[in-house]
Each structure stands twice: as structure tokens, then as C-alpha cells.
From TrEMBL:
EC number from the UniProt entry: 3.1.3.16
Keywords carried by this UniProt record: Coiled coil, Hydrolase, Membrane, Transmembrane, Transmembrane helix
Region (Disordered): 574-597
Organism listed in the record: Prosthecobacter fluviatilis
Transmembrane segments annotated in the record for this chain: 7-33, 39-60, 72-95, 115-134, 141-161, 181-201, 213-231, 251-270
Protein name in UniProt: PP2C family protein-serine/threonine phosphatase
Length: 597
């Protein structure tokens, strides 16, 4: 707001000065145009240009202000100034100023009532500055243009102050003192209108040390230089003093004034520095106290976290032990009375949790004298939540495994129970799984798959590996309660191996980010088709580790193998068939043997 007022007052003073000059020319009062009779007066064209530009500055923020009108006035001023410069450099008179002052008086070797070429140049510069002021995007150009006009005008004013006006006594029209004063007023109006956000006022604003030094030193240096020049010109030279003494006195005065300014600035800046130092020391002390308090809190918090981590580690260790206790510690023999080494079905397992506890679970349990149930599942994610769901899966398996030995119906019952538990808990979890019922007497197995990676059937008697066919495949366990799983039947020959696994075994990335896929796993198993089962599992694990260049897995890994050692009752059936053949041949032999004589 203060800059707006300054701009308005300076523009108004410029307009008044131009109007007074025009009145002086019309009325014949030359003093209104020149301040003193011995000074050259301001030209009427100059006064008209100042009046037009001041009118633009005064009406710039008026609600009814029209920019095209202002631009037209600026163009008029530029045409007048440009015409004067054309006359000066070409020597051709356009006759424009003769309309205003047809028969001017002489001021030395030049005519009065004519615009100076320096004035014309200043009008061009300040017109560009006013035009830039009207356009927001070009406003930053107004400062440099105005500063140049102010510099030229100050040189003219200094010439008048020192009694040697610029270009007086020559053939070039000099700049009148009122003209220079009007340029200074108009330049001040433009700089104030630009505001503190643009150069040159931008560096003066604020409480920074730089701004304080500028506000004190720059005006002081200018005033001292002016005072020293005026003192030397108007006083010391009139006293007929020795030149050395006059120079010493002026220098002493300069030193005294500068010393006073420096002392005042040092007091202000020193006070700021002392206050800043005091505040810095107080802030440093507060920061040190805060650091000590923070260190104490961190130490206490660290101890608390260490204790809780220790407790959590112990609880996780206990949970791991309990989870491992839920897994089979030995596998059943088939038939149940047979020694383990003579079991018709042999079992192999690999169990590697990614953390303390796992989301993978498997179980092997007898269902009849010659039949065994095999269940493997992989709960979404891994960690404590997944481990809790595996405990639910074991409970549901134990609850329903004695009632129905059909894999599809058994999986349907487990899915319904798991969905009810998760829905009541208000959480979204799921598990994939495979249920297998293997019968060593029939040489076959039944299975059902719930969104789980398809198991591998290693048909060693045929020399090939296949995926189990996924007839009637359904979704994962726990997502929907009305899912019905289908049972599929397949045969196993002696030496065949059924390999069940979780996806943590093959969803492994190498250093380039490439995935060890299920097809890669199939190929690795098929290449080791005739390996002993335990050696096969370890060899496949070694290949996966070699692919990832890591000794661990990102996800839980569980592998379960069921190998058909022999088919129960096959030898008895074969011996029975041979006996029947012998009985059929016996009567023929008796007829062929002659009776003794």
C-alpha cells in the first residue's frame, strides 16, 4: 500500500510540473518552465509528454482504465521523442515543435522551446518502462529501464548542483533542470509501482543483514558524495584556502560521516549478531538437553523392544516346536502289522519353513489295513497368521478324516468348516491343498485338488513323468462354502512315485529376475526319474538353490513323496493262478500213465 501511495504522489507531482510548464509557456511566465531565468526552460513538447505519461500512471489502477488508450498515449510520446532524435541525427526538421513555439528565444547558441536529444532518449526508455509496467509478464523489465533514466537524470541534476550544467554553452540543446527533476519523479513513481518483489527494491526489503546494510550504506554513501562535492564546489573554493587544506578538510568530513554511518550500522548489525548468537546458544543448549533426553528414551525403548523381541522370539520358537509337533513324526506301515522296511507304501518328506513358523502343512494317516490318506496344504502367505490357519486345517482334517474316505467329499467338508471359521473371524484367508487316498492292495489312488499345484506322477515302470490330471478342479479352500470337489482315480505300479509339493519350491527368482517355473521343476524331476526318492528330492533342491544362488527360500517349502514298493496280494494271486493251471493238467497226466501190471 505504501508503494502505491508513493507511486501516485510522484506521478501527480510529475503531471503538475508538466502542467505548470505548459501554463508558463502559454502565459509568458518563463520562470514556471525554468525555475531560474539563467536556466534553460523545459520545452512545451517535453511538458506535454510528461503530462501524458503521468496521466497513464495516475489512471493505471482506476476501474475504468482502458489499456488501449494508455498504449496510444505512450505511442504518441514515443513518436514525439523519436521524431526529435531523427531531427538531431539527420539534420532534417519535421516542424512538429514549431507548432508549439513558432518563434523561440535564444538561450546561448540554442533555441528554447525545443526538446533535448538526451530528453528524447530518456522518453523512449521510460515509455518502454511504463509499457512493461502495464503487462504483468514484462514487469521485470521496467526496473532496469527506469534505473537507466534515473542515472542520466541524476547526472544532469549534479551538473546543475555543481554550477556546470551538462551541455551548457554548446550547440546541443541541454536538458532543463525541471526536465531532469520530472524524470526523477516519474522514475520513482514507476519503481514504486513495480513493488518490492522486483528489482531494484527487492534487495532492500526484509530484516536480513544484506537489506539492512543496503538501507544504511547506499543512501549514506550517496549523500556523503553529494555533500562532499557541494562543499568542495561552493564553500571551500570560495574561501581561497590552500588546495591541500581544502582537500584534507573535505576528506576529513567524508571520513567523519562515513565513520558515523559505519558505527550506527555496526551497532545495529552487532546487536542482531549478538541476539542471533544468544538465540543460537540457547537453541544449542535446548537441543543438547533434548538429545540427552532422547538418548535416554531411546535406551529405555531399546531395552523394552529387546525384552519384547526376546519374548516374541521365545514365543515363535515355541510355536515352531508346536507346529513341528503337529507334523507326522513317523509314517504308517502298509499293512499296519508289517515292519517299516517291508511296507508296501513308503513315504518321504522335506519341510523347510521360510521363517520361524510356516504356512505349509502335511499329514499322513492310515484309513484302512491297506490304505493311507495323504494331505498337503499351503496357506496364503507365511508367518504366524498362516501357521494359525494350518492348525485349523489339522483340526478339521482330524475331525472329518474318520467319517468319509472319499478325497473329494473330505475336501468339501474341510472347505466348509474352514470357510465358517474365517467368516466368523472376519478375515480373508485361503489355502490350497491336495488330498490323496492310496490303496496298496488295489494298486491305485484317489485324489482331489483344491487350487494346488498339480502333483507329479513318476511312472518309473514306463520311464516317464506326468502331471496328475485335474478333472473337476475347484478353487482354493476357505473362499466359498458351496464348493464341491471331485474325486479322480489313478493306478500305481510298483516303483512308481507320487510327488506332492507346495509352490515355494518352484516360484524362485534368479539374479536377473527370471522365474524357476513349474515346467522347470517338471524337467528337473523327469531328468532324475530313476534316482532313489530321497536322493531325487535333495538333487532337485540343489538345482533350485543353484538357480537362485541362494541357500534359502522366500516362501515355505514342503515336499511329500509316496512310493509304491509293491502291490499287496499280487504274489498270492499269481500263485493261485498257477495252481489252477496245475489242477487242470493233472487228469490228463493220470490218463497218460499206464497202470502197473
Amino acid at each position: 500500500m505504501i508503494y502505491r501511495r508513493i507511486s501516485f504522489v510522484c506521478a501527480l507531482m510529475t503531471g503538475v510540473l508538466g502542467a505548470l510548464t505548459l501554463i508558463g509557456w502559454v502565459s509568458g511566465l518563463a520562470v514556471l518552465a525554468s525555475i531560474r531565468q539563467s536556466y534553460i526552460p523545459m520545452a512545451p513538447s517535453t511538458a506535454l509528454a510528461f503530462t501524458l505519461l503521468s496521466l497513464v500512471l495516475l489512471l493505471r489502477e482506476h476501474p475504468k482504465f482502458r489499456r488501449p488508450v494508455a498504449e496510444l498515449l505512450i505511442v504518441v510520446v514515443c513518436l514525439v521523442a523519436g521524431g526529435k532524435l531523427f531531427e538531431f541525427f539527420s539534420g532534417i526538421s519535421l516542424g512538429v515543435e514549431e507548432w508549439l513555439v513558432a518563434d523561440p528565444a535564444m538561450f546561448g547558441a540554442v533555441r528554447t522551446g525545443r526538446m533535448s536529444p538526451i530528453t528524447a532518449l530518456n522518453f523512449l526508455l521510460i515509455s518502454v518502462a511504463v509499457l512493461a509496467l502495464l503487462k504483468v509478464r514484462l514487469r521485470f523489465w521496467a526496473g532496469p529501464m527506469t534505473a537507466l533514466v534515473l542515472a542520466v537524470s541524476c547526472v544532469v541534476v549534479l551538473g546543475y548542483l555543481h554550477g556546470t550544467p551538462l551541455l551548457y554553452g554548446g550547440t546541443v540543446i541541454p536538458v532543463a533542470l525541471p526536465t531532469a527533476a520530472a524524470f526523477i519523479l516519474m522514475g520513482s513513481s514507476i519503481i514504486a509501482a513495480i513493488g518490492a518483489e522486483c528489482w531494484p527494491l527487492r534487495g532492500w526489503q526484509g530484516d536480513s543483514t544484506r537489506a539492512v546494510l543496503l538501507r544504511w550504506f547506499l543512501p549514506a554513501v550517496v549523500l556523503v558524495a553529494l555533500a562532499e562535492g557541494l562543499l568542495r564546489t561552493h564553500f571551500l573554493t570560495g574561501w581561497t584556502l590552500n588546495p591541500a587544506l581544502a582537500s584534507a578538510l573535505s576528506t576529513l568530513l567524508y571520513i567523519l560521516i562515513i565513520s558515523a554511518v559505519i558505527s550506527q550500522v555496526a551497532r545495529l548489525v552487532g546487536r542482531r549478531i549478538d541476539r542471533a548468537e544468544s538465540e543460537r546458544n540457547a537453541a544449542q543448549a535446548a537441543l543438547e538437553a533434548l538429545n540427552r533426553e532422547l538418548e535416554q528414551r531411546i535406551a529405555e525403548r531399546t531395552r523394552e523392544l529387546s525384552a519384547k523381541n526376546q519374548q516374541m522370539e521365545e514365543e515363535l520358537t515355541m510355536a515352531r516346536e508346536l507346529q513341528l509337533a503337529l507334523l507326522p513324526d513317523h509314517f504308517p506301515s502298509v499293512p499296519q502289522s508289517a515292519p517299516v522296511a517291508e511296507s508296501a507304501l513308503k513315504f518321504f518328506s522335506v519341510y523347510q519353513p521360510a521363517g520361524k513358523v510356516s504356512g505349509d502343512f502335511f499329514s499322513v494317516f492310515p484309513v484302512s489295513e491297506t490304505g493311507v490318506g495323504i494331505f498337503i496344504c499351503d496357506v496364503m502367505g507365511h508367518g504366524v497368521r498362516a501357521a494359525l490357519v494350518t492348525s485349523m486345517m489339522r483340526a478339521l482334517l482330524e475331525q472329518h478324516s474318520g467319517s468319509d474316505m472319499d478325497p473329494g467329499r473330505l475336501m468339501t467338508q474341510i472347505n466348509h468348516g474352514l470357510h465358517s471359521i474365517l467368516k466368523q473371524a472376519g478375515t480373508t484367508m485361503y489355502a490350497t491343498g491336495v488330498m490323496v487316498i492310496a490303496d496298496a492292495a488295489k494298486g491305485e489312488f484317489q485324489y482331489a485338488i483344491a487350487g494346488h499345484p498339480s502333483p507329479l506322477h513318476l511312472k518309473r515302470h514306463e520311464g516317464r513323468t506326468t502331471f496328475l490330471e485335474l478333472h473337476g478342479r475347484a478353487g482354493a479352500l476357505g473362499l466359498f462354502s458351496d464348493v464341491v470337489f471331485t474325486t479322480t482315480r489313478a493306478t500305481m505300479a510298483p516303483g512308481d512315485l507320487l510327488m506332492l509339493y507346495t509352490d515355494g519350491l518352484f516360484e524362485v527368482e534368479n539374479e536377473e529376475g527370471n522365474l524357476f517355473s513349474q515346467e522347470d521343476l517338471f524337467k528337473a524331476v523327469d531328468e532324475r526319474l530313476h534316482f532313489p526318492t530321497g536322493e531325487l528330492f535333495q538333487s532337485v533342491l540343489a538345482e533350485v538353490h543353484g538357480y537362485s544362488q541362494r541357500s534359502d527360500f522366500d516362501d515355505d517349502v514342503c515336499i511329500l513323496g509316496i512310493e509304491m514298493a509293491c502291490v499287496l496280494g499280487a504274489e498270492k494271486r499269481e500263485s493261485g493262478l498257477e495252481g489252477e493251471k496245475q489242477n487242470q493238467k493233472a487228469p490228463l497226466d493220470e490218463e497218460a500213465v499206464p497202470e502197473p501190471v
